[in-house]
Amino acid sequence: MRLAKDLKQGLSLKVLFFSIVRLILEYGSVVWDPYTALGSLQLERVQRKFLRFVNYSLNILCPNHDYAPVSYLLGLSSLAERRRNAGINFLTGLLDGNIDSQSLLSLICFRVPQRATRNNAPFVA
User: 62 — alpha (psi -120 to 50), left (phi > 0) or beta?
Assistant: First the structure.
């Protein structure tokens, strides 16, 4: 925020946030994705702090503590949603063979039904 105090355009603030902050927050997120609500909340707090700063810098009208209009204006999705999509892409790449890791692939337990049932879950818990 010290670097961006003189910036008054949303695009430049967004590029600065993407290149410095979000890059660090999402690095290796497939491996360390927090499984508790508290861990996820702590990560989201960083992005909300940025949205609050953008709201103040650009004088965007929005309700108190609701930065959805700012997020929509900048085209930002939540970090939890981005981590979920990264995990899905990693699993898809692993199953398609684009990611070569036999040790990870052997840890996935598939359910192959003998006959058609109502339970369509592809994995065994």
Answer: beta
pTM for the complete prediction?
0.72
Model confidence at 117, pLDDT cuts 50, 70, 90, reads low
Backbone dihedral region for residue 41 (phi beyond 0: left; psi -120 to 50: alpha; all else: beta):
alpha
Taking the mean position of all CA atoms in its chain, how far away is CA 58?
24
Find, among 115, 50, 109, 114, the residue nearest to 79 by Cα.
50
What average pLDDT is seen over the chain? Answer: 82
Domain residue spans of the chain: 10-106
Query: Is pLDDT above 80 for 6?
Result: no
Pick from 18, 24, 7: nearest CA to 74? 18
Write down the pLDDT at residue 67: 78
Question: Phi and psi for 40 in degrees, rounded to 5?
Answer: -65, -40
